Amino acid sequence: MKRYWVVGGEYEDAAFRRLVPGTETLAGPFEDERRAHDEWVRLTCRPGTAPATMQYSIVADGRGR
Fold it and tell me: Is residue 65 domain-resident?
């Protein structure tokens, strides 16, 4: 069974190469992609509170189905 994670944080600039230390986020595991997506929405859709250099992704671990 796959597990899903939401990873990211605030990056140093819009190139999104390096995270600002201390802003790293790892949320999960989630049992299905929908729950991970809900967390991704919660983290990314905060108008006026999140800088433009915040970015999160949904990743799945390497386990089989």
Answer: no
The partner residues of 17 in beta bridges, in order of sequence, read none
Strands 4-10 and 54-60: antiparallel
pTM of the model: 0.81
Does residue 14 lie within any of the structural domains?
yes
Count of domains observed in the chain: 1
29 lies in which domain range?
4-60
Largest CA distance in the chain: 39
pLDDT tens-digit map of 14-46: 899 999 999 999 999 999 999 999 999 999 887
Q: What is the pLDDT of residues 50-59, one digit of tens each?
A: 678 899 999 9
**Which residue carries 């189905």 as its tokens?**
65
Report the candidate in 60, 54, 61 with the shortest Cα–Cα distance to residue 25.
Answer: 54
